Structures are given as C-alpha cells and as structure tokens.
Amino acid sequence: xxxxxxxxxxxxxxxxxxxxxxxxxxxxxxGYVADRVMPAVVAATVAAGPPALAGAVRGDPGPRAxxxxxxxxxxxxPAVAEYLARAASAPVLESLGDAGALPRPRREGGCPRCGGxxxxxxxxxxxxxxxxxxxxxxxxxxxxxxxxxxxSCAGCGERSSAARSIFSDDERLPAxxxxxxxxxxxxxxxxxxxxxxxxxxxxxxxAALPLDLYARERGFTKIAPNLMGI
Length: 230
Prior knowledge:
Blueprint: H1 2-22, H2 29-36, H3 38-48, H4 51-58, H5 64-72, H6 79-96, E1 118-123, E2 135-139, E3 145-147, E4 164-169, E5 173-181, E6 186-192, H7 201-204, H8 209-217, E7 221-222
Parallel strand pairs: 1-6, 6-7
Antiparallel strand pairs: 1-2, 2-3, 4-5, 5-6
C-alpha cells in the first residue's frame, strides 16, 4: 500500500500544480480530472499497485468522467471505479481549496468545503502551554481540515462519554488510536501529532491497519474507508 501511495504522490504533485494554473470550473471538474489526471493514476497503479488492483485497473473500469462525477456527488459505485475517481480527483480538489468548492450543501457532520465525510481525526500541538489542541477532521473527498467538537462522535454527534470507546496499542502505535461510537457503531482513526510531531495523517492512517482490524472484529465500521479501501 505504501509503495502505491508513493507512486501516486508522483502523479499528484504535477496534477496539483496544473490545477492551480488551469482552475477548472466546478461544472467541468469531472471531465478535467478524467482527462488530465486519471490516465497517470492508472499507469501508477498498474506499475506499483497490489496485483489484484493493478489487474482490475488494467481492464475497463467504465466511463471515467462518470466515475469521477459519482465520487464528487457521494454516490456509491464499484470499488475500482471509486478508487480511480478518488485518487485522480484528490490532488485537484486539494490544490484548488475553497476556490474549487463543490456546489452542494454540507451534510450533517461533513466537510464545510465539499460536504464529504471525515476520513480521520487529527490532533496537533496548540503552540500554547495553557491551550488544548483542537480536534480536526480531514475530509475523505477534498483533503481539507475543519475543527470538530473534541468529545462528540464525528459520525452521529453523540456526546455521551459512556457511548465512546478508545482502542489503542501504545507500544507499537503510540500516536494512533481509534475513536469508536457505541451508538452508531462507526469509528475514526485518530492521529496524535502531539505524540509524533512528524506524523503525516493520511500516511500514518495507512499504518493503523491492526487497529482497523481490531475495531472491525468488534462490529464497528469506519465512517469512510481510506483510498486503499481500508
């Protein structure tokens, strides 16, 4: 997974720079991503991805612009089409920031920029000795961050401490933990930048696979799977 992620970074960097220059309009975003970014994502996945994914991508995943449009609209679709759409659209949405905001209302608990679901939870140093670091959520669609109430479930808003469970492995994964909700039975990976200032949330979340498996064995479902489908 990390080898594929590194290969995708080589695609994302020039795609992000190009998006800043091209500034595609929201109504043309799906076609732009499908034409300008997805072919490079396919090539990187074939070269560096797990054999099953590389083989599936090498085949015909269907109309590319339609897959991107479905991902941007939050619609369910086959796993391979969603992977390609997500991997290709991510650098464009992240690069454009608020200028590329998708024209849809914010979903309950979703990203204020594009309405997407939270991918992970992140804590960073506040920079002030007497201030507690705010809890931030990272969007699974556009990669943006927003501040979220520290003690409430990111999936359903439950505030009762009795309904929240924390799973961790302090010895092997000291900066990672799981925030699970007994009410909605969903969870997020928490990346604690106070314990590891060098943490890169989207990368460290991939390393949390043992915690993902632990939560799933107990009947919890991730609010939004990551790019690798975990």
